[in-house]
Design goal:
The chain is of the alpha/beta class. Helices cover 42% and strands 17% of the residues. Helix 1 (61-79) packs parallel to helix 13 (401-420) and helix 2 (100-112) packs across helix 3 (147-157). The chain starts with a strand and ends with a helix. Residues 1-18, 116-135 and 854-862 have low confidence and may be disordered.
Length: 862
C-alpha cells in the first residue's frame, strides 16, 4: 500500500532487518537484488509460536561476485569524466534469496530508501501501527536473477513504473511489453536459447530427449517453447517432467523413476544450480550412468556442480551467455577485501567464513549453514588470502552473468547521460520538456533506457522493441582436465543475428562425449521410408523398404520417390540407375548362333545354286523346271538373310524394313513352290488326248503367277506401312528393371494379314502338292513340296502361341527361328534329294532313266 509517498508494511510482518545490505549514497541510487542465498530449508510451522527465520542451504559466491561487479561498475562510472560528470551514482543492494517473498520485501525497502541505522542495526520506525521507511529511494532496480521472482516484482512495482533491469532472467514471457512495460534485461530471451537448443539436439540427431524443469514460470515457458520448436526438427520429448523447487526425497524418487524407465539418454534440464545439485546427488546414489546432460543457461557455467559429480557431468553441453574476455580492474576489486569491509558487511563476512571455514571475531554474519559445525570452527587468524584458495567469487575466467550486471549498470548510466543531454524545448516529454537527472520520475528514465545505444568493452549494446538484447550464446562442453578439475571448453556458438542456416556453428572434434545413445527408433537408412506408429510420438516409427520402382536418397525419408521411365532402383533402393537395355544383339550367344545359322542357310542356298548351274544341262535339273528352281533358291537366300534384320538394336527404319522383307520374301518362295506344283500337276493333265493346258502354263505365265502372288503381299505391306507402320520403342512394362528395345507392329491387323497371306499361299501349295504327289515321275517334286509344307505348317503353327507368350529378345529369337526352320525345311525337302542324285548318284541323272520310269508307271496305270 502506498500512503503519503511511503510503502507501508503491516506491523505484524515481523520485519527486523540487519546489515544484510550494501549501501552507498549518491545523487541517483541504483537498487540491486542478488540471490546470495538459495535453496530454503523446509520446516513445519505451527500456530503457537513465532515462526523462525527461513534458513538456506547454500551461499552463492557467484552471486556475491555479481553484486561486487555492480559496485565496481558504479564506482568506475563515478570516476569517469566523460560519463555523468555532474552526477554521482549510489547503490543499495539487498539479498533476494531466490525467494519471491524475500525479494518482494527487499524491493519495497529499495524503492523506499535506505533505513536508518541504530547501533549498527537497521530499524523500522512506526507510524500508525505501520513501519515507515525513509525516502532515500532507488528509482531503478537491477535484478532479479530468476524469471519467476522478476515477474512477481514487476506485478508489484509495475504500477508505479519502477524500471527493472534483469541480468539473468531469460523467460520469454517477460518480453511481453504490454504486461511488463517497465522491464528490460541484458540477458537474451529464452526464445533464442530454445531455438539454439532445438537446433543443437537436431544437429546431433538426438530425436528422443527427456525434458525436465523446476516448477517455475521460467521452466514452464522454456519447455513449452522447446516442445513447439523441436517439432520442426523431428525431435520428440521422451517425457516432460516438472519437479518442485524444494526437492523432497519423494519428489526425487519420482523423477529418478521417470529417468530410469525411459530409453532416452539425453536429458535437458531447465533449473538453477541449486535444484541440479539435489538431482545429481540422487543420480549418483542410484548409480545411473551414461546420461548426456544438456544445460540451460541457468547452470551451464555452474562450476560448483562439478566438485561432487564430475563423472556424471563430463560431456555436458549447454549454451551460456556471451563471455567478457576481461573487465579491467574487476579482479583487483574482488580480491582487495579489507578487514573493515568484511566486518561491516554480513555478506562479505559470511563469504569469508564459508571460504576459509573459520569464525570472524565479532562477526556480523547472521546466517550460518549448520550451527554445530559453525561453532566448532576456529577463529580466523587474519592472514587468510583469497589467492591461496579457489573460489567462484574470484574466478574471472567466465565473466558471463557478471558481464550482464556490468552492462545493466552502464545501461542506466547511459540513459541518465542521454537525459542530461536533453535541450529544454526539444525534450521528449510534454511541451518539449526535459527531465532532471537528479530528480526524475521512474517512467522518464525508462523512456531513455528503451532507446539506449552504446558500446561496452568493444561490444555494441542495443535493445529490440521488447527490451531484449541481441542474442549470442557460447556452446560449452564440460571436460575434465588431467588434474580432475572442470574445463569449460567453447565448442561452438549461436548468433541470432545471422541467417537461420548459419546461426549455429559447432566444432564436433573439440567435444568430449559420455557413452550414450538416445533414440526411440533407429534412423531409416536411404532406401526406406518412415511409417509412424499409431498412438506414439513422431520419433517412434518403423522403417519400410521403398516399393518397387521407388527410391529414397536421404536418411529418415518420409516418402519414396519413383524413378523415371528410363531408370530403376539399385538393390539398396537408394539410387536410380539406368535400366538395362535389352535386345537381341550380335554379341550375345543367341544372336551369334542365329546369325551363323542364317549365313549357313544362305551359303547352302548359294552352293546349291552353283551346283544346279553346273548341272543345268542335265535331265534332272531340266526336268524340274530349272527357272523356278533358280528363283526359289535365290528367294531362299533372301529368306535366310532376312533373319539378320531381326538381330541388332531396332530402329524405326529397320523395323519398317524387317516385317515387309519377311512377308515378301516368303511370299516369293511359296509363290514359286505354288507355280512349280501347278506345273507338275498341269503337265500330267496335258498328256491326256486333246488337252492344250500347257500353253497357258508356259515360262511367262509361271513368272507372272509368281509376281502376282507376291504383288498381293506387296500391296498388303504397302498399306500397312502407309497407315500404321512398325516402329522401335522401349518396353518398360514387361520387366520393370529392363528397357526392351523392340519393334512394335504398329498395326496388329497388318502383321497378321502378312502372316495370314503366307499361310493362304502355303495351304494352296500344300493342297496342290498333295494332289500331285502320286503322279508317275521319277523326279516328281510334289511329294517333296508336300513334306516341306508340312514342316512349314508345323513351324508356324508352333510359332504363333510361342510368339504371343514371350517378350523381348526371346520373341525376336522365336521369329528368327521360325524363319530359319521353315527356310531350311524348304531347302532340304526340295533340293536335298536332287543334290544327292547330282553329287552321289550321277547314273540316275539320265534321260533314259527318266523315260523308263515314266513309261513303266504309265503301263501299270493302263
Amino acid at each position: 500500500v502506498l500512503k503519503n509517498g511511503y510503502f507501508l508494511i503491516p506491523q505484524g510482518s515481523a520485519m527486523t532487518v540487519n546489515k544484510n545490505s550494501l549501501y552507498e549514497d549518491g545523487d541517483v541510487v541504483v537498487g540491486g537484488l542478488f540471490p546470495l542465498h538459495y535453496s530454503p530449508i523446509s520446516s513445519v510451522t505451527g500456530y503457537r509460536a513465532k515462526p523462525t527465520p527461513t534458513m538456506y542451504k547454500y551461499f552463492s559466491s557467484r552471486a556475491l561476485r555479481w553484486m561486487q561487479t555492480m559496485t565496481f561498475a558504479i564506482k568506475e562510472i563515478n570516476q569517469r569524466s566523460d560519463l555523468l560528470p555532474q552526477i554521482k551514482l549510489g547503490f543499495h543492494i539487498r539479498d533476494s534469496c531466490d525467494d519471491i517473498p524475500v525479494s518482494l520485501r527487499a524491493s519495497l525497502l529499495l524503492v523506499n530508501g535506505q533505513p536508518e541505522s541504530v547501533n549498527g542495526v537497521e530499524s523500522l520506525g512506526k507510524h500508525n501501527g505501520c513501519a515507515a521507511i525513509n525516502r532515500t529511494v532507488s528509482s531503478i532496480i537491477i535484478g532479479d536473477a530468476a524469471s519467476g521472482v522478476s515477474m512477481a516484482l514487476l506485478r508489484s512495482l509495475g504500477s508505479f513504473h519502477i524500471p527493472l533491469v534483469s541480468y539473468f532472467a531469460s523467460c520469454s514471457c517477460l518480453s511481453n511489453q504490454r504486461e511488463f512495460p517497465t522491464f528490460m534485461r541484458t540477458m537474451p530471451s529464452d526464445t533464442f536459447q530454445i531455438r539454439a537448443l532445438a537446433r543443437l539436439v537436431s544437429y546431433f540427431s538426438w530425436t528422443w530427449v527427456g525434458v525436465i524443469g523446476v516448477e517455475s514460470d521460467y521452466a514452464r515457458f522454456a519447455i513449452q517453447l522447446f516442445l513447439q520448436e523441436s517439432v520442426q526438427y523431428g525431435v520428440c520429448a521422451a517425457y516432460t517432467y516438472f519437479y518442485p523447487v524444494v526437492l523432497s526425497q519423494h519428489a526425487l524418487d519420482e523423477l529418478m523413476d521417470v529417468i530410469q524407465m525411459s530409453s532416452s539418454k539425453v536429458i535437458m534440464n531447465f533449473s538453477s544450480e541449486s535444484e541440479m545439485q539435489g538431482i545429481l546427488r540422487e543420480v549418483q546414489r542410484r548409480n545411473i550412468s551414461g546420461l548426456q546432460w544438456i544445460a540451460s543457461e541457468a547452470w551451464a557455467t555452474a562450476k560448483s556442480l562439478w566438485e561432487k559429480s564430475a563423472d556424471l557431468l563430463m560431456g555436458t553441453l549447454g549454451f551460456a551467455i556471451r563471455r567478457a574476455v576481461m573487465i579491467p580492474g574487476l579482479k583487483q576489486h574482488l580480491t582487495s577485501l579489507s578487514p573493515s569491509h568484511i566486518h561491516e558487511s554480513a555478506f562479505l563476512a559470511e563469504f569469508w567464513e564459508e571460504t576459509f571455514k573459520c569464525r570472524l571475531n565479532g562477526s556480523v554474519n547472521s546466517h550460518s549453514h549448520g550451527v554445530d559445525s559453525y561453532l566448532d570452527r576456529p577463529l580466523c587468524e587474519g592472514t587468510e588470502d583469497l589467492g591461496d584458495v579457489y573460489s567462484p567469487y574470484s574466478d574471472v575466467t567466465q565473466l558471463r552473468v557478471s558481464y550482464n550486471v556490468y552492462k545493466a549498470v552502464y545501461l542506466v548510466a547511459h540513459a541518465l547521460q542521454d537525459m542530461s543531454n536533453c535541450n529544454v524545448g526539444k525534450g521528449p516529454f510534454l511541451n518539449g520538456t526535459c527531465a532532471d537527472p537528479k530528480n526524475f520520475k521512474p517512467w522518464q528514465l525508462i523512456h531513455y533506457m528503451k532507446r539506449a545505444n552504446f558500446s561496452s568493452l568493444g561490444e555494441k549494446i542495443n535493445f529490440d522493441q521488447n527490451g531484449d538484447p541481441i542474442a549470442y550464446y557460447d556452446l560449452l562442453n564440460w571436460q575434465k582436465r588431467p588434474d580432475g578439475s572442470l574445463h569449460l571448453v567453447k565448442v561452438g556458438f549461436y548468433d541470432a543475428s545471422m541467417l537461420a542456416g548459419r546461426s549455429l556453428v559447432i566444432n564436433d572434434s573439440a567435444i568430449q562425449w559420455p557413452a550414450f545413445r538416445s533414440v526411440c527408433s533407429d534412423s531409416c537408412p536411404p532406401g526406406s521410408r518412415i511409417v509412424r506408429r499409431k498412438g506414439e510420438p513422431i520419433c517412434c516409427f518403423d522403417c519400410v523398404p521403398c516399393a518397387e520402382g521407388e527410391v529414397s536418397y536421404m536418411t529418415d525419408s518420409f516418402e519414396c520417390l519413383r524413378c523415371s521411365e528410363d531408370t530403376w532402383p539399385n538393390n539398396a533402393r537408394n539410387l536410380c540407375i539406368p535400366k538395362t537395355i535389352e535386345y537381341l544383339s550380335y554379341h550375345e550367344f543367341m544372336g551369334i548362333l542365329l546369325c551363323v545359322a542364317s549365313l549357313l542357310g544362305a551359303c547352302l542356298s548359294i552352293s546349291i545354286i552353283a551346283t544346279f548351274y553346273t548341272y543345268k544341262d542335265t535331265p534332272l535339273v531340266r526336268a524340274n523346271n530349272m527357272e523356278l528352281s533358280f528363283l526359289l533358291l535365290v528367294f531362299l537366300v533372301v529368306c535366310f538373310l532376312v533373319g539378320l534384320l531381326f538381330i541388332g538394336r531396332p530402329s524405326d527404319w529397320l523395323c519398317r524394313i524387317r516385317y515387309p522383307a519377311f512377308g515378301i520374301s516368303f511370299a516369293l518362295c511359296i509363290s514359286c513352290l505354288l507355280a512349280k506344283t501347278a506345273v507338275v500337276l498341269m503337265a500330267f493333265r496335258a498328256t491326256l488326248p486333246g488337252s492344250n493346258v500347257m500353253k497357258w502354263f508356259g515360262a511367262k505365265q509361271q513368272r507372272a503367277s509368281v509376281l502376282l502372288g507376291t504383288a498381293i503381299q506387296v500391296l498388303i505391306c504397302l498399306i500397312w506401312l502407309l497407315t500404321s507402320p512398325p516402329q522401335a520403342t522401349g518396353n518398360t512394362h514387361y520387366h520393370s528393371a529392363t528397357i526392351i528395345i523392340e519393334c512394335v507392329t504398329g498395326s496388329e491387323v497388318g502383321f497378321w494379314c502378312v502372316l495370314g497371306y503366307i499361310g493362304i499361299l502355303a495351304c494352296m501349295c500344300f493342297v496342290m502338292a498333295f494332289l500331285a504327289r502320286k503322279l508317275p515321275d521319277n523326279f516328281n517334286e510334289a511329294k517333296f513340296i508336300t513334306f516341306s509344307m508340312l514342316i512349314f505348317f508345323a513351324v508356324w503353327v508352333t510359332f504363333i502361341p510361342v510368339y504371343v507368350s514371350t517378350a523381348g529378345k526371346y520373341t525376336v529369337a522365336v521369329h528368327i527361328f521360325a524363319i530359319l526352320a521353315s527356310a531350311f525345311g524348304l531347302l532340304f525337302c526340295i533340293f536335298a534329294p536332287k543334290c544327292y542324285i547330282l553329287m552321289l548318284k550321277p547314273e540316275k541323272n539320265s534321260k533314259k532313266h527318266i523315260i523308263l520310269k515314266t513309261n513303266g508307271n504309265s503301263g501299270q496305270q493302263l
